[in-house]
Amino acid sequence: MRRVIYTTNIVESVNSQFRRVTKNKRVFPNDIAVFKTLYLTINYMTKKWTMPIHNWSEAIAHFLIKFEKRIQ
Prior knowledge:
The chain is mainly α. It has one domain (2-66). It is 69% helix and 0% strand. Helix 2 packs across helix 3 (31-48).
């Protein structure tokens, strides 16, 4: 379960994508424009994620035990 949660490479990859998108456009007209840009970036990134998460079935079983009321 720890390997699934503590994956800093994935987090750093997402952060670098966000920085790349926001760096190109320095000024946003409002907060909603920023959120739309980040939302579209997330959609684009998730289309590229094709590799399954290693040991996900074991991790989800632990999550279901630990957080049974939050995960449905």
